[in-house]
Amino acid sequence: MHFAPLSPTLASKHDADKSEILEFEVLLILLFMIGILKRCLSIMAGEDVIRGLADVRGKLENAVQKLSYKPHSEPRLVAVSKTKPKELVIAAYDAGQRHFGENYVQELAEKGSDPEILERCPDIKWHFIGHLQSNKVSKVLSVPNLHMIETVDSEKLATTVNQNWGKLGKDYNLKIMVQVNTSKEEGKSGCSTDCAKKVVEHVLNNCPNLEFVGLMTIGMYGYDVSLGPNPDFITLKEVRKDVSEALNRSEETMELSMGMSDDFEHAIEMGSTNVRVGSLIFGAREKK
Ligand SMILES: *Cc1c(COP(=O)(O)O)cnc(C)c1O
């Protein structure tokens, strides 16, 4: 015997409802799994950062041990987080890292003001290490926890930073370094070795809201250390010696910011007090 369904249209409508509910559930489960996957990936990446950081710190300490003298203080490690997500900044902070560097104004502003970073990394110290244009100065200065600008390369820029910092009415001076174009490459930022002295003098004499910390160089990319001491590092040391003699200040009062992933151990060997390491901690960057 064959019974026709009471109402075929009703039955199939019911089935359709059911499958819609099913689809919805599958979607929910999928979303949930994507969430877990994303979390796992960021935890994994976070673990890589912790490992990279430990590795760099170990190498840094080794390089310090090999010095023939005992430095005033251990070279500062600035973790350069450019192009990397905030989760990795937080992971490195949780592993004890405090100094971070960014070289794009917009990216520094975003990370520096990020509510999660502000809450979870209250003691973070941002270094600006990129080329700074006068019209971007106030944006950089408004970043909470800005610690240092390493790339002041003209008297004019120093004046602008000094005036803007003064307007903010802080009760401490902003730390700055003077960037020197040691490789004399065209189009590279940093002032010439000759003008470095003038900029430093200007900062010391005419910029009461700034604290002069030292000299910084990026130098030529891809120098082969097996050829001997990096000429850029030699030049930066010479500039420091000149400035020290001309301005009658001891060399120890002037830091040297030099050395990146490829050569920070070599830079420490040559007297660097501030190394800026990115890819060795956070992994290779995609080209911007
Ligand atoms: C990106 C950058 C670094 C870090 O470079 P890595 O080779 O990734 O360590 C250091 N200093 C400056 C000025 C940079 O722009």
Automatic annotation (TrEMBL):
Gene3D superfamilies: Alanine racemase. One of its GO terms (molecular function) is pyridoxal phosphate binding. InterPro entries: Ala_racemase_N, PLP-binding_barrel, PyrdxlP_homeostasis. The keyword Ribosomal protein does not apply. Keywords: Pyridoxal phosphate. HAMAP family: PLP_homeostasis. This is Pyridoxal phosphate homeostasis protein.
